[in-house]
Amino acid sequence: MQKSFTRSTKALDEIFDFIGTFFREHKVGKEVAFSIKFAVEELFTNFVKYNLTSKSEISLNLSIEGKNLVVRLMDSEAQPFDPTKAPDPDLHAPLEQRRAGGLGIFLVKRMIDKIEYHHTDKMSTITLVQSLEK
Amino acid sequence: MFKIMLDNQGIVRLQGRLDASQAEEATKELLKVTKSAVVDFRELEYISSAGLGVLIAAQKRLKESGHSLTLTNMNNHIRDVFRYARFDLIFKVE
Questions:
Q1: So what's the pLDDT on residue A126?
Q2: Residue A46 belongs to what domain range?
Q3: d(CA A44, CA A69)
Q4: A17: nearest CA partner in chain B
Q5: Domains defined along chain B, listed by start
Q6: Left (φ > 0), alpha (ψ -120 to 50) or beta: where does B57 sit?
């Protein structure tokens, strides 16, 4: 199941509806559903944030492959940014120094079983693999 | 769908999904909180890092005047997010 979305956080409602439909059709459990929604939002908003000027849409593909849920997010006009290599935030810093930047990607890495990143010819593809046996 | 409501007992009630598209609205409403307050998560289904950022900003602002937010009634998924982010170090979570 694949769909393309406007490069804006305003597309999030539509994205959650799309994901929700897929989850209902495939009877995906609540824990996996929460993690995937969280990861898709964080990675989608990252694509938006790092290229505000492009008009191209961002594609989202969901599939079941064996015992895994596989999610692919594709941006055809992305700057290279590998989320798997992003530095972790300092979680023990005092409140004054805590910030939300970097936290989203850190949490995605914590929640998702496997994340792969590919970038060729302006096309960034992030693949998430999550076991359905949770 | 997201709602944020402030009642006259100093309780902030969150409802629905606090994602990046709702962060501005949540920030605007939380600016009305000027004293220590309880944030009730009972009807909040989902939060992303954008929502966490809103809460951090509010906690920082309140701390300057000796106040703080206490977070209560989280569902298990949101509680996990707070635990992974070590927000237990910067918020009282009930």
A1: 97
A2: 2-131
A3: 18
A4: B1
A5: 2-93 (3.30.750.24)
A6: alpha
Q: Do A104 and B46 touch (CB under 8 A)?
A: no
- Which residues have C-beta within 8 Å of that of residue A13, sequence separation ≥ 6? B21
A134, pLDDT greater than 80 = no
pLDDT tops 80 at residue A90: yes
> Per the CB < 8 Å rule, is B46 touching A38?
yes
Predicted confidence at residue B15, as pLDDT, reads: 98
Note whether A38 contacts B53, CB cutoff 8 Å. Answer: no
pLDDT at A52: 80
Q: Nearest CA of chain A to the CA of B75: how many Å?
A: 11
Q: Do B48 and A41 touch (CB under 8 A)?
A: yes
Q: How far apart are CA B12 and CA A114, in angstroms?
A: 37
Mean pLDDT in residue range A98-105: 88
CA-to-CA distance for A76 and A89, rounded, in angstroms?
28
Cβ distance of A12 and B19 shorter than 8 Å: yes
Cβ-Cβ contacts under 8 Å, B84 against chain A: 106-107, 110-111
Provide the number of structural domains found in chain A: 1
**pLDDT value of residue B10:** 84
What CATH number is attached to the domain comprising A8? 3.30.565.10
pLDDT at A100: 81
Q: Is A53 helix (H, G, I), strand (E, B) or coil?
A: coil
* Average pLDDT value for residue range A1-22: 96
Give the residue-averaged pLDDT of B57-85.
96
